[in-house]
Amino acid sequence: MVGIRSYGAYIPLYRLDRSEIVKAWQSPFPVPGEKAVANYDEDSLTMALAAAWDCATGIDRQEIDGLFFASTTSPYKEKQASTIIAGAMALRRDILAADFGGSVRAGTIALRAAIDAVKAGSAKNVLVTAADLRLAPANGLNEMFFGDGAGAVLISNDAVAAEFVGGHTISEDFMDTWRSDRDTFVRSYEERFVREGGYTRVVPEAATAAMNKCDLKPQDIARFACFTDDPRHVNAAARILKFDPAQVQASMFMITGLTGTAMPLMLLVAALEETKEGDRILVGGYGDGCDALIFKLKGQLENVRDRLGIKHHLASKRMLPNYQKYVLWRGLMYMEPQSRPARPTISLSALWRDREWGLPLYGSKCKKCGTPQYPMQRVCMVCQAVDQYEPYCFADKKGKLTSFSHDNLAITEDPPITTAVVDFEGGGRITCNLTDREPEETKTGMDVDMTFRWMHYVEGVHSYWWKCRPVRFSNQR
Amino acid sequence: MESIRDKVAIIGMGCTKFGERWDASADDMIIEAALEAYEDAGIDQKDIQAGWVGTMWGGDTGRVLAEPLKLQFIPVTRVENMCATGSDALRNATYAVAAGVYDIVLALGFEKLKDSGWRGLGDTPHPSASRGIIGSQGFSGPSAFALLATAYFAKYGLSPQEGKRMIGMISVKSHHNGALNPKAHLRREVTIEQVMNAPIVAWPLGLFDCCGVTDGASAAIIVRAEDAKKFRPDPVYIKALQISIGHSQGFTRSDFDYLSVYESVHASKAAYAEAGIKNPRDEISMAQVHDCFSITEAVIMEDLEFSPRGRVKEDIDSGFFELTGGLPCQTDGGLKCFGHPIGASGLRMAYEVYKQLQGKAGERQIKNPKLGLTHNLGGFPAAASVSCCIYGL
User: Among A34, A441, B17, B171, which one is most buried in terms of CB atoms within 10 A?
Assistant: First the structure.
């Protein structure tokens, strides 16, 4: 049996009330609700990692033999993001890490590829993680609609929590929403063509074919969890498919916005959280065709219910104060440069040497005196024992703030940047930045955990490392 | 192990006007400081047998000193120990004289910071810095030292306002002294209200908690102690010269509490032992310490055993460190107001002690000083290079 063994999700802490966008542009189309907004130090890669991390909770990462990353907004055009994610999660090297892109259907394409790989026996556990952070032109509907987030599932032939029943895929060239190699912002064609000519034609066709293949009827489907770039379109497709509104997994349009490539996986996770053993979920991915994939829930699902998933992430949020903050975080305006020296170029050879240490946030633990230390120390900081250490992971440890400073001088996209001295449960100290924080609420003794973030961009290189943040979830990590 | 105590003496010193020297190059300032030192010592440049030059960003090799002065093929060594560079240039020069290798040497420190076009100090580029706080993340000097303030306030139960007032009074004192010093960069008195209401540079430190970013150069001429009186009646003798280098323990070890800079403790204890000082609070007449930030000065006073742990506030409030107090500090305005041209600062501190011991400190002259101390800190509280020197007549 092949199916979903585990699931996870990530939604950024911050949300923008759409009324702020309406106010900024005096928009005649007041769209209600909120959209999730990645912090300035988050991107598709970091969000995908966070969702994958959630998904891998309690699972031996040495068992994972595939890491598929799907996004239309990878930080690199040429260079895999999946290998960075795999490195940060300290996965094995003899795995298949792959990037999927090309359209917002990449999430379900990666899901299908993972299912096929496990079915074919070339892998036992493939972690699929999808994220998007799509930019839309200012003062348009897509700017209102798009939100940021990530979803992940572990496809396996072991401990299956939701069995893959069957599916159908249509691939066809259809240009309704796209972004060329010269574009920063997503483009869309005339709305009625997008809906009538594309979405409501292809999605019902694929979903019906999938149900027919599995000998199922619309009433056999508990949840229809389908991507959409417009909340009205998915409802129109559901009507054609004769699904009751109660069968349609809510698009999260009002609370996160529409999350592109991540959306089918995020909806799948939300559906898994709300359904029970025996229920069937039809996942739909759309873009240059459609994937319709049907899963049936098993009793094993109860074993992975402790994921943060969609539910806990939705409950944890902060509102952005205004639209300007969104513009700043997305780098949409040329800001007054800080009067500081330019950042030095990033040494790729030094980063490579650090691949098993800093990237997954491993330090060393002295075998003689037992002190955890970061960065890895060949000579123990405490007892000076030489080369007597074992790797020690700090990424999954909680800590407390011993001291901090809100630095208005150091170069950053969003001053002040908060310097934090973190002392970890179990020992060890790391000095790093504190993110997702309110400066006035930062206190010594505050509980923090670690989060993988984008650091900066110099000469074509994005650098990533770990930051601490006020503990976001008390029940996990 | 032998001691440097009373083996060498300073017979001449020079120090440029510190400040934003838009009209002067590094070479101009090197010449300005060296000529003052030669004149003060009553020597000619031809008498100099070797040189030590301290600079962090001022260029490579001893050439940076030889070129402006046209030193004629004598040995010159460039020294770097971040903000403690000037003191280390002096230390190295002194040891060569004590060893008997040279009779007369020049130690000179300088920095031309204001040609950068940016605020604050530059970053130290670490081409190999991959991930970590230094080199790869935003991390300014003020932020590094603000960590002392946050931890100190938390440990001793000071509210941000109480803490900022405590360290603010340090800046008020230094501005008072700087206003009396014609060579100081910042020469204006400030009120505690101005200090506390100034824009935040790195919370909780505001603008007036931070020292000046300054151009300047300073120089010393060093001879063996037995030769010193041939040059002048009032040479200043070296009583102790110590330096302590940390191993980045504060970035890695949880027992580093950000209430103390270990290197200051190590360097000062060694200096007191070298100079035979039992009770520094009573025996030291004056001190020029590394007040790069107001909180740094507060913590140094405890590290140097001038104030008991956690009780520097009492000495600040009582005016103990003011010109008329029991242990005047930063009599020249300190880094805060005299300014902080990195490579020059250690020798600038020595210059003030030298002038005070000779009774030539003008309006800010303190009464009858016997022993003067300089404390020069490079790097970060978590990973410092600290020099502690003691001088006497």
Answer: B171
